[in-house]
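To assess whether the prediction recovers the assembly geometry, we first specified each molecular entity separately, as shown.
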Amino acid sequence: MLAREIWRVILLALGAAWALAMLPAVLGGTHWLAGQEVSVQSSSLVLVGTVLLVGWFVLPVLMFGADETVTPRKFATLGLDPRRLAPALAVAASMSIPALFTGFVCLATVLVWRGYGLATTAVALASALAAFATCVLAARVSTALATRLLSSRRSRELAGVAAVVAVIAVVPVLVGLGSLGLEGTLERIPGVVTVLGYTPFGAAWSAPAAAAQGVWTAAAGQLLLAWGFVGLGLLVWTWQVDRLLVDPPSTVGASRRRADAFLGAGAGPTTTFHATLAVARRCLRYWLGDPRYLSSLASTLLMPLLIALLLSVVGLEAVSGGVLLAPLVASAVGWGRHNDTAFDGTAFWMHVSAGLPGLVDRAGRVVALAAWALPLVVGLAVGGTWLAERWDLLGASLGLAFGLFGTGLGVAMVSSVLLPYPAPRAGESPFSTETGAVGASLVAQLLSTAVTGVLAAPVTVLFWLTVTRNPGLTGATVAAGVLGGGAVLVLGTVLGGRFLDARGAQLLARLH
Amino acid sequence: MALRLRGLVKRFGETLAVDSLDLDIPAGSMFGVVGPNGAGKTTTLSMATGLLAPDAGEVHVHGVDLWREPARAKPLLGVLPDGLRVFDRLTGAELISYAGLLRGMPRDVIAERRDDLLTALDLHGAERTLVADFSAGMSKKITLACALVHAPRLLVLDEPFEAVDPVSAGVIRRILAEFVEQGGTVVLSSHVMALVERMCDHVAVIGAGRVLATGSLDEVRAGAELEERFFDLLGARGPHTGLAWLRPS
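The predicted structure of the complete assembly is given in tokenized form:
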């Protein structure tokens, strides 16, 4: 328990240090902005405000579970009046480092407007307070909404799917922005800013600009609008608190039915092969039906996709993002299972109790992942080289992808036995993380990354040489990838199985 | 002896959960383990079934050292743990099949026993439903089915009747009684003294990680009610709760 708290305190201290370090930058920014034209000031602040509010609306949901301290449900048994409880909870929620930092940013922007006279400064101050209140309320409203929406298991599964879809949807947006180019994007800003000025995102930030330009009717209107949004947010939040107090979200969903897909109609002895297949089938069921797997997949896929995109936009001369797409995804998917056993949770006791050989346990997991990941990687390699118009690099791309997949997964099969860290429990929000796990997860992630990196060094170097120096090394890259990755995978599976045989019960004790 | 525990020790940080515990469970007995919350029942049963590594001590299942030769001992054991999940994305039928496949049983035998178990435990309505959608009592029953599917010689059940409705509890009691009649051994833990007194022929009272009394039911209760003996052994009986203010106002 104490260790948990220590990590919490360290995180808090790091956050506070970061926020403190940012304060001079914020002040510098407002000082610079004070010297600019009104149009620049207005559009910059509206954009900053939009990002702030979007952040406050979205981040608490993604960090769902981290922010449970003042959830209204905890007050359900105390019989409090929601109209008094709701504002109190909102105030309590604003006593956090991100909230204080946001408050500082909002107030600092008043400095931008002090050159336009007392009246404008007063409008700016009233607007800044409205903007801050909007942010805090947005976080409350979105958290309560997520609590409600994610309460049944069915909807949590949908949330996992939605996360995967959202990640994939980021790609066309970025491609669109890339095709517009920096200039084209900037040209569209004024129009967007005007529209934002009449929404909760920009009203509070546009009002001072209107005042500075002497358009007092617009200033008054937008200021009223901004405080109107605050009032609306407070109303919605009070209503949500009321609902949460008297009608807590039920955790029961409709039940689902299906036939026994594990046994089939086959007769005869159950060999190691059949047992492995059973474990693989069980893992695949979780890949398809458990939101925790989907959301972890989404977060592992996000990074490689963004890197590949960035590389293709920046346009690295030797190798474009398309060629690297398959290797990046393959390494993320393989290495991504470095905490695989923890996702079983305490249900892992069934393997321990049955005395299932460790090798069968490991092999089943490898088969389940390879069954969908290998076709995906091959598809991405073909698609990526086609997009990049570098058919000559297809072999090298595939070689590196296989190498990184095998190495990452092989290392994962060992590290998920030796270095498990808490994963969200089955049926819990896929977005929740255990705060106490920060230390253990950091060690496990760093170690498994480092070992994977070292073991995959040969194929990576060969790939680089093929791309930059000598295309004749394609064959060697493919060989190093398939043979090297395969060898590490087999070795990791066998070794992980041995460790599992020796310490299955110890592992189970750490999955609680 | 079906189960022999010698000098079992388990320490969690500062707390000594099980304190060099010895216990003998004769073959063919229906053995009840009773004790207050935190006495170390679950910890002891977990170590006795290979789910928790003891800090010291030995466990013998029908003479086989569980922690030295798990591959020989585990097939003899059927386990119903308390507070551990199962793979609940599987249907009831699939979970039993999975348990059988993990133990390497012939597939036609699994299929036959799976259907028998679903019928016997009155789970036929739930065989095609995901275990995640089961009630607490149904989850207990399906986990019990998984413990039975390989026809073990020794059943170790931690709180098998918790959250189980009276009708199902009756069914489970009959199944266990038949199992013992056929020569099997059952170890079960419970908080409910009356139930242990009615079902079991042997009992052990556990407190503070030690065995306070063990033997046949009549030896342990020594002419009194089991519940009275339980309070005597724990020295925990007192007429005054200290809540003198607790009366309807």
